[in-house]
Structure formats: C-alpha cells, structure tokens
TrEMBL record:
EC class name: hydrolase
Protein name: Alpha-galactosidase
Domain Alpha galactosidase A C-terminal: 318-404
Keywords noted in UniProt: Disulfide bond, Glycoprotein, Glycosidase, Hydrolase, Lipid metabolism, Lysosome, Signal
Keyword Transmembrane appears in the UniProt entry: no
Catalysed reaction equations from the record: a globoside Gb3Cer (d18:1(4E)) + H2O = a beta-D-Gal-(1->4)-beta-D-Glc-(1<->1)-Cer(d18:1(4E)) + D-galactose; Hydrolysis of terminal, non-reducing alpha-D-galactose residues in alpha-D-galactosides, including galactose oligosaccharides, galactomannans and galactolipids; a globoside Gb3Cer + H2O = a beta-D-galactosyl-(1->4)-beta-D-glucosyl-(1<->1)-ceramide + D-galactose
Subcellular location: Lysosome
EC identifiers of the protein: 3.2.1.-
Main localization of the protein described in the UniProt heading: other
The organism of origin for this protein: Aldrovandia affinis
Length: 440
C-alpha cells in the first residue's frame, strides 16, 4: 500500500472517530437520575431474622417498604425502584449453577418479589459482584456473568447494583464490568446497570470515564456514605475536587453516583439533611434513599418528597452541576436547568456561630449575569419563598445556617432595556468583577 493511500485512510479514520458521538449506554433507562430505595446504609447485612425479624434482610422488608412507598406518597413523588443490596443470596448456587435467594429469608424467591413490586407499579433492584465473592462474602459473579444476567432477567429484575469486591486482579475490573453490561444487554430485558467500577479502580489509576459511561447507567466514584455530616462533606469535597473529570460525562443514560440519601436516619441535623438533598439534586445524583420508610419523621419525609427539589433532580436538560465558588466559609454550587434556568446552592460550611448572610452579587457570582436584564428568583430551601424579579443591581441576600444550604432557582425574564445611567453602572460592575478573583 502506498504512503499516500495510508495517510488517506488515516484521515478517514481520524475524521470518522472525530464525528462518531460518544454514546452513553443505550438501554433506554436512567434518562433522568434514578429514584428509589436501597437497603444498605440503614439495614446493612442484618440477617438475624430470629432476633430482629422487623429489620433483617428478608422478602418481608422489601414488601413492607413497597407497601409504604405506595401508601405514603413516595411512589407518587417519583421513587420507583426498591433495591436489594448485599446478603440476599444463599451461600451456594443451585444444581444448575444459578444464584438463589436464601430460602429461609426469601421463601417466595426473587421472581415472586419482582412480581409483587410490578403489581404495585414499582420496580425491583438486585445486587451482585464482579469478583469471586460479594463484599459480605456471598457468591460473586466472576465466571458466571451470562448465567447471572439471564437469571436476573428471568426473575423480572429491573436494576442490578454490581459491586467490585474480590476481583483477583484489579486490571480485570474494566473487562468484568463491560462483560456484565454485554451479558445484561444479551438477555433482551432492559436492566438498569449500577456500577462501582471507578470506586475500585481509583485505588490504582484514574478510570476511563468514557468507557464507564458507555457501560453503566450510574457509577459510584467514592467511599460508601455513612449516616454523618463528615461523610456527606467528604463526598462533596471529593466530587468538587474531581469535577472537571466527572461532571462532563454525566447526562441522560449515565450519572455519577455519590451514594445513598441518609435523610430520615440518626446522624444528620435538619440543616444537614437539607444540604444533602440540595446537593444531591445539584449533582444530578440518583436519589436512592436508605432509611426506614415505615417509621420516618414528617420533616424528613417532606424534604425527600419536596416536588420543587425533585423537579430540579429530574430536569430534562440532564446536566450535572458543579462547585463554582468558595468564599468566606461558603460554597456556591450551580446546576444549569432547562429553559435557561439555573439552580444555585449556597452552603454555609462554617461549623460555628449562627446563620450568616451571603450576598448574591455579580462580584461573587459571575453567573448572576443571567440576571441581565432581569431574573425571577425563587428560594426552594430552607423554605419556599418567591423572591420576585431582580436585576444585576439588586441587593439580594440569603441567610444560611451553619452546615445548612440555601437553594434558589433563577429564571431569566425579559425586561426593559437599561437606561443610560443603568448601563453605565453595569459596565462599572463588570470592571469591578474582573478585579476580584474568587472564582475557582
Ligand atoms: C442492547 O444494545 C443495543 C445497542 O446499544 C441497544 O440498541 C439495545 O436497546 C440494547 N438492549 C437492551 C435490552 O438493553
Ligand atoms: C470478558 O469477556 C472476554 C470475551 O469473552 C473474555 O475473554 C474475558 O476473559 C472476560 N473477562 C472477564 C473478567 O470476565
Ligand atoms: C477510554 O475508553 C474509550 C471507549 O472505550 C476508548 O475509545 C479510549 O481509547 C479509552 N481511553 C484510554 C486513555 O484508554
Ligand atoms: C462548571 O460548569 C460550567 C458548565 O456548566 C463550566 O462552564 C464551568 O467552568 C464549571 N466551573 C468549574 C469551576 O469547574
Ligand atoms: C416567578 O416564579 C414564580 C415561581 O415559579 C412564579 O409564580 C411567578 O409567576 C414568576 N414571576 C415572573 C414575573 O415570572
């Protein structure tokens, strides 16, 4: 082959590689962030049904949670998936090499449980592991991806959380997750695929997020969430530190997963619960609650079911937000929304003192330019409040409790053009803004 022919081929290949869009996993699912309930953080590996029948990992737990989800407005609010985590299977596969549920704790089996969920208009999630064992030591799927995918599909499972423990060599992680993705696709049933691939690969190298986005519907990046403020801030800090890498890959079909919502449990104050909800919504995160819906306080329930927050979460533009400023013990996070709107969260990270006020000015928030000429501001948290129409020059303040968050939605509105003196003032503001570099 001549050199010129070779270079012509290179050009063609180069061009086609350039114009081929990077496509997220196409199974028709997770077009907006997944909403549901997942047992792990609250119920862990409690398998002692003799002494703790109310809280042990058994079919009864998921059925009761499903009943409450329908009865108490969770389903109506959008929470749909009821998800099993680790510790559901029997320690041994059946005679045909299939996973089977622990017969004592799941006497009806998983298919019956899936049927139960579907009869209520809900969906069932299950858990397995890419390696030889699950994290709690139950049988893993390595070497059984095809049969396990087929079994889950036959049972009518709707979501698979695929953990990353006990992979004999970390270099096999990518291959394992990709193989399972293919195995799920081959079943012909659309099964939402929740991965932990990057979390396990980060210990060794920076994961390939393009490949991850093509393989999974969401992916855990960082450590398990605990029922504590320290854990929530750890996740936020990690996310902000890696945002230039992970935010661009999120979108319809594939999302970064900062782990479960722990709202309604024991460790977060009311303000901290609002911060978790506001920031999970800004991060376009799956909203998978891990709490006891049979016994949850009304304040937490109202927060988790807040329709303004859920509509930000499920915004059709499907863009993840990021941290855009860090100033004076405050953090500002923003998420672009459909219709040119913006969700804006101001966290008070100072853990001492009382409520502090944060001025919404062009100097602190260049995105406040969306208020040129005018914008309509609605506060969602800490309480709903329509703040009216504002401009670049409005003196707007939000008051934020320590460890709490103010969440606003800012919508551009058409206004009258500025008068000459206003325009002059505007130029002055912009100039002043340039001289302040509090931007990240
Ligand atoms: C399998 O993958 C193909 C190609 O991406 C896609 O069109 C199809 O919908 C997928 N099927 C399922 C069941 O996920
Ligand atoms: C993935 O699938 C390929 C092709 O079938 C196979 O060669 C490889 O061993 C599999 N890897 C894992 C970790 O299952
Ligand atoms: C990452 O994965 C994508 C998709 O599989 C691939 O095209 C690309 O070459 C990979 N990048 C690196 C640096 O390995
Ligand atoms: C945040 O995301 C926007 C796009 O939505 C981008 O323009 C901006 O540079 C990002 N900011 C930071 C600090 O990464
Ligand atoms: C501002 O937004 C609120 C809440 O969505 C709405 O009720 C109000 O009509 C809006 N005002 C204007 C001028 O657009």
């Amino acid at each position: 082959m001549s050199g010129s022919m070779l270079s012509a081929i290179h050009v063609i290949l180069g061009v086609s590689a350039f114009i081929l869009p990077v496509r997220p996993l196409d199974n028709g699912l997770a077009l907006t962030p997944t909403m549901g309930w997942l047992h792990w953080e609250r119920f862990m590996c409690n398998i002692d049904c003799d002494t703790d029948p109310h809280n042990c990992i058994s079919e009864k737990l998921y059925m009761e949670m499903a009943d409450v989800m329908v009865k108490d407005g969770w389903k109506e609010a959008g929470y749909e998936y009821v998800c099993i985590d680790d510790c559901w299977p029997s320690m041994a596969r059946d005679s045909q090499g299939r996973l089977q549920a622990d017969p004592k704790r799941f006497p009806g089996g998983i298919k019956k449980l899936a049927d139960y969920m579907h009869s209520k208009g809900l969906k069932l999630g299950i858990y397995a592991d890419v390696g030889t064992n699950t994290c709690a030591g139950y049988p893993g799927s390595l070497g059984h991806y095809d049969i396990d995918a087929k079994t889950f599909a036959e049972w009518g499972v709707d979501l698979l959380k695929f953990d990353g423990c006990y992979m004999p060599k970390w270099t096999l992680l990518a291959e394992g997750y990709i193989n399972m993705s293919r195995a799920l696709n081959n079943t012909g049933r659309s099964i939402l695929y929740s991965c932990e691939w990057p979390l396990y690969e980060w210990q060794f190298q920076q994961p390939n997020y393009t490949a991850i986005q093509q393989t999974c519907n969401h992916w855990r990046n960082y450590a398990d969430v605990f029922d504590s403020w320290n854990s929530v801030t750890g996740i936020l800090d990690w996310t902000a530190d890696h945002q230039s890498l992970i935010v661009p890959v999120a979108g319809p079909g594939g999302w970064n997963d900062p782990d479960m919502l722990v709202i309604g449990n024991f460790g977060l104050s009311r303000d901290q619960q609002q911060t978790q909800m506001a920031l999970w919504v800004i991060m376009a995160a799956p909203l998978l609650m891990s709490n006891d819906l049979r016994d949850i306080d009304p304040t937490s329930q109202d927060l988790l079911q807040n329709r303004h927050l859920i509509s930000i979460s499920q915004d059709p533009l499907g863009k993840q937000g990021n941290r855009t400023a860090k100033v004076n013990g405050f953090e500002v996070w923003q998420r672009p929304l459909s219709g040119g709107r913006l969700a804006l969260a101001v966290i008070n990270r100072q853990e001492i003192g009382g409520p502090r006020s944060f001025p919404l000015t062009l100097a602190l928030l260049p995105s406040w330019r969306c208020c040129n000429l005018q914008c309509n501001v609605t506060q969602i948290l800490p309480q709903y409040q329509e703040m009216g129409v504002h401009s670049l020059f409005s003196k707007l303040q939000v008051l934020v409790n320590p460890t709490g968050t103010a969440l606003l939605v800012v919508s551009p509105v058409k206004g009258k053009p500025y008068t000459r003196p206003q325009a002059k003032k505007w130029f002055y503001y912009l100039k002043k803004d340039k001289s302040q570099s509090i931007l990240l």
